[in-house]
Amino acid sequence: MTVNEIKKQLETSKKPVAKAFHIGEHFKVLLFGFKKGMKLEDHKAHHTTKLLVLEGDVIYHQGRKDIRMKQHDEVEIPAEASHSVGALEDSLILLTQG
Questions:
Q1: Helix (H, G, I), strand (E, B) or coil at 2
Q2: N or C: which end of the chain has fewer CB within 10 A?
Q3: Phi, psi of 6 (to 5 degrees)
Q4: Could you give the CA distance from residue 40 to residue 34 in angstroms, rounded to a whole number?
Q5: Type and span of the H or E element at 41
């Protein structure tokens, strides 16, 4: 249901859509949906995070590196590392923190 909600909201959104998928005492799982061209600007997470591309094609930027990621690609994001994500096509990513 969460994925369908994100896709529905993306129809009219001008920015990425985020929803909590599962939250526990020491972890959080989030889903982010992007339309082609949308970007999640530079930000930091306070916990180590794993990013997994469920659908689409994104550019993950951290420091001086850009990583193009497609379906089922994953990257670990260190805590407090400044990073951004931009969508090269309609995309859905899963973030696991904690």
A1: helix
A2: N
A3: -60, -50
A4: 9
A5: strand 39-43
